[in-house]
Amino acid sequence: MMKSMMAGFGIVMATSFAAQAADLGRPAPAAVDYVKVCDAYGEGFFYIPGSQTCLKIGGYVRAEYRAWKTDDLFGSVYGLSNGVKGPANNTFTTRVRAQLTLDSRTNTEFGLLRSFTEAWYTVDSGSSSPSVDLWKAYIQLGGLTAGRAQSFFDFYTGDHYASVFETAHSDSQVNLLAYTFSFGNGVTASVSLEDSTTGNAARRMNGFGIYGGNKYPDLVGNVNITQAWGSAQLMGALHHDQPSYNNKSEWGYAVGGGVTVKLPMLGAGDSATLQAAYSKGAVSYATPDPLFGYDFLPKSISLVSPSMNQTVAWSVAAGMTHNWTSKWSSSATVSYLDHDGASSNFLGLGKFQLDYTQIDAGANLVYTPVEGLTIGAEVEYKTAKFSNGNIFLIPNKETDAVVGLLRVQRNF
């Protein structure tokens, strides 16, 4: 019996040693490279495995349902011929949009290296396939910004959704090359070269197809202060107006300033903003959404005329956000635009000059039942009163439109 047990034990040990000897000839299994949280830049970042780069993936899914009321003049002037912006023929439209953002950051010997990408995938009423917009895509290293980003002229872009009608302020994504100087205590100054042909807010207001080639980028600058009380900014831009009918060009310009004040005495996250802008030959810096806009027109019917008249526009905008409770909030924005159109007789129909004032307003009530989900109802209104025009184009009258919408959005 004892001999049998000893023999069995010997067999087991021999088999074990043989297995271990065989394993010595095999490579060790690779260590599992787990994803690690990166807390250096806030919540949501993680280390890309095998690197010192932190990445954050975000975005949203949004559904909107819109009900319209417009008059005939508004539809004809604003180009409302489809369901995207609400035509005279459609009183109900929809929009579904998915946003995806990628934010990567790495500390280097030259400062923070960052790349940011934001893409939109949208399906509107009247379309069976999505449109794709590269909304932002830029690289930052220290104070340098290169790529497609928010114009450095922009400061206040409204408090409410502004899903259909934007209030009068500058709000444009453009291809740019910029540098920001930091002076400490929240004070910065930026200078930017911006491609006016790439702005989503139509940086080149092209009245009647008379805009010529793009010879120079817009030169934009700002001085900004951001502190615990809020923020403020002064900004300016030079914009080149090049006509297609001759080589005589002129420079347009825009200046503006705004201030945002936090209101913790009313509620956490509450704020109020006031902003004003003035432009000549650069309408989109005063408003991204004019009812009728152009930067300039030739002075007379002769297209060989060496001169032009530039449009003057100025705007004032104000807004506020208030959190009623942790789940309920409201935002409202209102603006006034004065558009003094350039006078011209180039159509051969007598003197043409389109002057008007425009009022935009929007307000909403937003419910957040759980973190990341918002359900909001909003009303947006636009009206314009024309004081000068041409009977063949815009008669002297008023026009307006109102849109009510319901938005359901899931952020991640």
Automatic annotation (TrEMBL):
Compartments, as annotated in UniProt: Cell outer membrane
Pfam families linked to this entry: Porin_2
GO biological process assignments: monoatomic ion transport
Primary location: membrane
N-terminal signal peptide: 1-21
Entry function: Forms passive diffusion pores that allow small molecular weight hydrophilic materials across the outer membrane.
Free-text comment about domains: Consists of 16-stranded beta-barrel sheets, with large surface-exposed loops, that form a transmembrane pore at the center of each barrel. The pore is partially ocluded by a peptide loop that folds into the pore lumen.
Name of the protein described by the UniProt record: Porin
Source species: Prosthecodimorpha staleyi
